[in-house]
Amino acid sequence: MLEVKDLSINYDDNVVLNNFNFCLSPGDFIGVLGSNGSGKSTLLNSLVGVYPNKSGGIIYNQKYLDKNHPFSSIGFSPQSQVMDWYLDVWSNVELGLRLANIDKHKIKEYCDFAIDIVSLNSAKKKIVDTLSGGQQQRVQIARAIAHKPNIYILDEPTTGLDVESSEKLLDFLLLESQNNKGVIISTHDISLLECFCTKILFIKDNKIEFFGCKEEFMKEQMIRFYIEFEYKITDAEFSWLKKNINEYQVINPFSIEIFTPNTTDHTIFSIINTFPKDTFNIKNISSNVINLRETYLNKVKH
Ligand SMILES: Nc1ncnc2c1ncn2[C@@H]1O[C@H](COP(=O)(O)OP(=O)(O)OP(=O)(O)O)[C@@H](O)[C@H]1O
């Protein structure tokens, strides 16, 4: 659908995206992750042709995108709100449909559909400037999705949305991706990504740190083992831990947490078996898998 090829973008001397390569394929629901300022918006803006100095580019239908951008195939909602503030909700969405060249006989149906997805039925006739921040965000999204494009590019679409509106929007996007459309969104809401995305694109230090299936990203997850001892850990045991266990954390004088990759070759038993004889009298062990949020935080920190 879209191929990002050797894309680099800089603002003056500040290289924001360094040699990005990835594809958005039919059926993909890509979540873009990264810290503030990592370049998520720059990337999404570049997919719709808003870029500063760059090399490489975006290939669509075997051609590099230029001024003849396929707007009718793309629904784009930027991070900053771009709307006609003194028109009502319905007219804003209608305008988007006209710009996307939708047949005028279908405009009412498409408008109603999009306004329903973002639950603004009762505010149809309200002037956008008089709406709350979250409602304005919903208008912008309705405008981006109303023409049911092949590709959805939404920059932090759930920011400012209440939980039920976020779920409704993401349910819709998920259905669209299952109908072989392509979806790419950036968000800081990791739990939503965990539920809805099929692929993750993680930006760190101006590069793509990870691009691939969510499951693969999660595979690098760790398991956390909580180990409680019968007595206070001795100094000798502390120094043994320091020397021999890669990732652990002391919780209190009686217990530690050990982190291991989520694979069968790194079971807690293989670790415990390395404990020197007659040390670490274990009282209890429990474990839990670290979720996507913590996986992401670990990756950002390291
Ligand atoms: N118009 C601009 N001129 C100069 N620098 C810019 C401009 N827009 C963005 N930048 C810089 O580019 C970098 C990436 O910004 P971008 O908005 O893409 O990050 P982001 O990942 O979307 O951040 P956030 O999570 O805060 O929305 C930042 O260092 C930012 O200061």
Automatic annotation (TrEMBL):
The chain positions of domain ABC transporter read 2-230
Q: Which Pfam families does the protein's record reference? A: ABC_tran (PF00005)
User: Which superkingdom, per the lineage?
Assistant: Bacteria
Q: Which GO terms describe its molecular function?
A: ATP binding
Q: Which InterPro entries match?
A: AAA+_ATPase, ABC_transporter-like_ATP-bd, ABC_transporter-like_CS, ABC_transporter_ATP-binding, P-loop_NTPase
Q: Which UniProt keywords apply?
A: ATP-binding, Nucleotide-binding, Transport
| Keyword Coiled coil annotated | no
Sequence intervals crossing the membrane: none
Please give the name of this protein: ABC transporter ATP-binding protein
User: Origin organism of this chain?
Assistant: Vagococcus proximus
